[in-house]
């Protein structure tokens, strides 16, 4: 984990850089696809959905929520991304899901800089790393 400063523009810039974004999505998809079948099952995608900590409240304190409610919410999210309703996500569905999630987070953050604690392998950290490479280019 590390402490970083970012805002919504950091995330939008990363998503709009197709080469960087697609490279990250490919690596993330491969890491989640445990059985290497080219599809993400609900169980495989749960790991990614849980990273978004939907039920987290202020200052990293998790809300005590009924496990059935959490499960139902994650399943609902999964169904939103399964565009062909075949019960799994292919790469394109996953890429679209990640893009929508990241842009929603960017919209929620707004343009004011925020200092956040980020997980090393999370998408926000990747966006910050991407932005830092852009700042170093003359």
Write the layout of secondary structure elements.
Elements: E1 2-6, H1 8-16, H2 18-32, H3 42-51, H4 67-81, H5 91-109, E2 114-118, H6 123-136
Antiparallel strand pairs: 1-2
% residues in beta strands: 5-15%
User: What is the mean pLDDT?
Assistant: 86
Regions with little confidence, pLDDT below 50 for 5+ residues: none
What's the Cα radius of gyration? Answer: 16 Å
What is the overall silhouette?
Answer: globular
Helical fraction equals 55-70%
Largest sheet: 2 strands, antiparallel
SSE succession: EHHHHHEH
Number of strands: 2
* SS class: mainly alpha
Q: Ends: how far apart?
A: 29 Å
**Count of runs of 4 or more consecutive helical residues:** 6
Q: How do the strands line up in the largest sheet?
A: 1-2
Give a quick summary of the entry.
With 138 residues, the protein is mainly alpha-helical. It has six helices and two strands, in the order βαααααβα.
Give your account of this protein's structure:
The protein contains 6 helices and 2 strands, in the order βαααααβα. It is mainly alpha-helical. Strands 1-2 form a two-stranded antiparallel ribbon. α1 (8-16) packs antiparallel against α5 (91-109) and α3 (42-51) packs across α4 (67-81).
